[in-house]
Design a protein that fits this description.
Largest sheet: 11 strands, mixed, barrel
Order of helices and strands: HEEEEEEEEEEE
Helix content: under 10%
Low-confidence stretches: 1-14, 16-23
Structural class: mainly beta
Strand order of the largest sheet: 1-2-3-4-5-6-7-8-9-10-11
Length: 229
């Protein structure tokens, strides 16, 4: 895995790029993503998460991607957990052929504390990707930084923001090219449900850098249901 300092530098560069004005030839699409995640302890320090995520693209008119993802992990401390997981992804782009993808991934979750009352956390993920349109293994690293702050002292409603950069580590015969792959930036609100469960909703911007043709900018209404025991 890349050193954390290098990953942080890549994240900062990617976030800066995402904030720059989009090029005139960039394609734009309106989408809706709905994510449901169940997570919690199994026994002692053994933990899990299971995720289902349909994504509707082409101006939210059709199901463009379906993702099923799960992982088992170990809680190393109150601040750090590590996971090994698998994801199955089916993608049906507009005017394109459906692809099937299998992913193995390793993940580290960090709780970074609450400086100034802002809850900061980090997620580092290393993926190995196999697509139905090729034979190569694609390696990609993802780094997310997340911040949440209560709307007022003692409130369970929080303003939420995060940025995640994706960097491909190698070229593949199915189209991946090493370097910046995409950047996601989210701004919204976290609302309490029963128990420790929450719902996160807001605007998600995704910039996708394509090796051939025009880059893409997705404007996404995101609803994330986080189920915790």
């Amino acid at each position: 895995m890349l050193p954390l300092r290098s990953i942080a530098a890549l994240s900062l560069a990617a976030a800066t790029l995402a904030a720059a004005p989009a090029r005139a030839e960039t394609r734009h699409d309106g989408q809706v993503w709905q994510q449901t995640v169940a997570q919690g302890p199994i026994k002692d320090d053994l933990v899990y998460f299971l995720e289902l995520q349909p994504r509707f693209g082409n101006d939210a008119s059709e199901l463009s991607q379906m993702m099923i993802r799960g992982a088992l992990g170990v809680k190393l401390s109150d601040k750090v957990s590590v996971y090994q997981g698998y994801a199955n992804v089916r993608t049906r782009p507009a005017n394109g052929l459906e692809t099937r993808e299998h992913r193995s991934f390793q993940q580290v979750n960090w709780s970074l504390g609450k400086p100034g009352g802002v809850a900061l956390s980090s997620r580092t993920r290393l993926e190995q990707r196999w697509l139905s349109t090729g034979d190569d293994t694609g390696w990609r690293v993802r780094q997310m930084i997340r911040a949440a702050v209560p709307v007022k002292k003692g409130s369970k409603v929080a303003l939420l923001g995060w940025v995640e950069s994706f960097v491909a580590l190698n070229d593949t015969d199915w189209g991946a090219r090493s370097g910046l792959d995409r950047v996601r930036s989210f701004a919204g609100v976290e609302l309490p449900l029963s128990g420790k469960s929450t719902v996160e909703t807001g605007y998600l911007n995704q910039y996708v850098k394509t090796p051939v043709g025009r880059d893409q900018m997705d404007h996404i209404f995101a609803v994330n249901l986080m189920l915790r025991p």
